[in-house]
Design a protein that fits this description.
The chain has 280 residues and is of the alpha/beta class. Helices cover 31% and strands 25% of the residues.
């Protein structure tokens, strides 16, 4: 498999630990696909002009993820906060006006030429590429992470140009998931609908088959990026083999490995003293 992941990059900031990790759905999926054995798994996106951006880049290069036609803007990197409140992990917004919030990637002819060399392009609800998907479909298949977004008007906009639809549905039962899958598969281009459900089995749906994939027991250090690793592992196996069952197994194994480390894929960096974050 050759994958290009286009969209968000952030620095997940663990305030209590005084460190941040490179992350963001598209960054994590690119690394996860590499970890799963992809022949190529590269990244295209917009970086800020701060040290955090440079650290994300260096981490990606160390993970053998090439940076393809990336842009640099005069804005800080996004820094969502991860805090501990009464023993529970809590997410909070970081500083406003980051590169992630202010800018949208505008794809060029050169970008589409690059995209055409990959089997699949992965993007997400966080990446502002919805209006480009129909054009992207002329060059390669599309994987899209909807996260928890299930608004019907949004689905009707994105699903016509999506081949692999990924959702997070921790509180959904099997019947609800199957109804979601049935709705998504009404759109001719959709091949697979995947719904991860936290500790419950993930459910993978095609027009011919439904597979329940249990989570794999592991020593959990941090679940950050586990869903993204599931996506990377699934895409690599499914595109290579077309086997839904083995793709689910490889996806779950990839996610389990990610849970054994801190951050989406490791690479901690110290928060600089001059940075200030409010604890909840």
């Amino acid at each position: 498999m050759k994958l290009i992941s286009i969209g968000d990059n952030v620095t997940d900031t663990y305030v209590d630990d005084g460190v941040y990790y490179p992350g963001g759905n598209c960054v994590n999926v690119a690394v996860a696909a590499r970890m799963a054995g992809a022949e190529k798994s590269d990244y295209m996106g917009i970086f800020g002009n701060d040290q955090r951006a440079e650290n994300i880049k260096s981490a990606l290069i160390k993970e053998n993820v090439a940076l393809i036609n990336c842009r640099k803007v005069y804005a800080p990197s996004a820094a969502p906060q991860v805090l501990i409140d009464m023993g529970d992990r809590v997410f909070a917004p970081g500083p406003k006006n980051s590169a992630q919030h202010l800018f949208k990637l505008r794809l060029t002819v050169a970008d589409f030429q690059e995209i055409s060399t990959y089997n699949v392009l992965h993007t997400s609800v966080y990446s502002n590429l919805e209006n480009d998907l129909s054009k992207i479909q002329e060059y390669t298949k599309v994987s899209f992470d909807f996260s928890e977004q299930q608004n019907r008007s949004y689905l009707q906009k994105v699903l016509p140009n999506t081949n692999f639809a990924f959702f997070s549905g921790a509180h959904k039962d099997k019947k609800e998931v199957e109804l979601l899958g049935k709705y998504c598969l009404q759109f001719p281009n959709v091949e697979v609908v995947s719904v991860t459900r936290g500790a419950q089995p993930a459910i993978l749906i095609t027009r011919r088959k439904i597979v329940e994939q249990p989570t794999i027991a592991t020593h959990i250090v941090d679940t950050m990026g586990a869903g993204d690793s599931f996506i990377g592992g699934f895409l690599n196996e499914y595109i290579n083999t077309g086997n839904l069952q083995s793709a689910g197994e490889k996806a779950a194994l990839n996610a389990a490995k990610t849970c054994e480390i801190s951050g989406g894929f490791g690479h901690p960096f110290l928060i600089e003293k001059r940075e200030r974050y409010e604890k909840i």
